[in-house]
């Protein structure tokens, strides 16, 4: 089955700086990679996703890049703000349409 | 508004009690899931269902059981709670993945934080 590794486990940035979270996956057949944001005490929410037929997708200050050859994908947040502080999860989709989640990254934006 | 609902939000119970965590969705989704989220954040899949009368065990061994008698309802039951069951339990639902287009993502409920004393 799919295995997803996520790094770093904790990331601290200064407000206004960029943040990058990286994930690698094992199943070359995986073709869907979502990112979830979980604020303290709240439910995980989908913030952006990418399918294997594109290499990059942007939505305002967030972007995701995918390198199928290397089997890794990354979340990029520009001009970080305090409200970006949360836990971020990447995921890959394995056979049967189940998502396999990474271990999560705690992002702290210092003002 | 279509959403997924979990009750209760918080539950403190004694060891040996039987409990049922409720999960209902009005999204019209066929697929539903239960995740256990430990204090270290990781999401562990414990049960999933592809539709009515379909239930499967997930990657993390769990002493809980689930049922799917109605599309919108996916309750999780612990026959005899133990302190090791203390955790946050998240329910989620999704459509079937469509490769061509559209959104495919899990919608999560707000979770049940269970404490067994």
Order of helices and strands of chain B: EEEEEEEEEEE
Query: By helix and strand content of chain A, what is the structural category?
Result: mainly beta
Largest sheet of chain B: 7 strands, mixed
Helix content of chain A: under 10%
What overall geometry of chain B do the principal axes of the alpha carbons give?
Answer: globular
Q: What order do the SSEs of chain A take from the amino end to the carboxyl end, as H and E?
A: EEEEEEEEEEE
Low-pLDDT stretches of chain B are: none
Average of per-residue pLDDT values of chain A: 94
Derived structural class of chain B? mainly beta
Can I get a quick summary?
Chain A is mainly β and 111 residues long.
Structure description:
The complex is a heterodimer of chains A (111) and B (117). Chain A is mainly beta and 111 residues long. Helices cover 0% and strands 59% of the residues of chain A. In chain A, a hairpin with a 3-residue loop joins strand 9 (86-94) and strand 10. Chain A is globular. The mean pLDDT of chain A is 94. With 117 residues, chain B is mainly β. In chain B, the strands form two sheets. In chain B, strands 2, 4, 5, 6, 9, 10 and 11 form a seven-stranded mixed beta sheet that branches. A four-stranded antiparallel beta sheet of chain B has the order 1-3-8-7, with no helix packed on it. The model of chain B has no long low-confidence stretch (mean pLDDT 91). Chains A and B meet through strand 4, strand 5, strand 9 and strand 10 of A and strand 5 and strand 10 of B.
